[in-house]
Amino acid sequence: MAIIARIFINNVQAAAANNINRKETKNRAISNNKGGGRRELLLSSTFTTTAIVLDSQTQLLNKYLKKSEENKAKNDKERMDSYYKRNYKDYFQLLEGDLRQKKDLTESEKGILEWLDKNK
User: Fold this and answer.
1) Percent helix, percent strand, percent coil in the chain, to nearest 5
2) In the chain, which stretches have pLDDT less than 70?
């Protein structure tokens, strides 16, 4: 009976010691997380850097959008002129011979001749 009591007491002490070790391990893990450390510092600096980069990209995009809106009419005119030069120049030159000999010109024929004079 004394041996059984001694074994029981040893088991209870071992279990208590084991529980204390578990609590200390948890407390260490929690205290390590509260303290931050290198990972937290790295992550916070990464988020800060990302926020700065995104903000500067947003400002740059806004600048380009504003500039694009200001030049929209000019860019549209240049695009259409380029389109007409590529696609209608040959056709207008074909008509040019007949139009130069004609005496009474319509508004569109006058416009074609003016366009040919300007774009030669």
Assistant:
1) 90, 0, 10
2) 1-51, 53
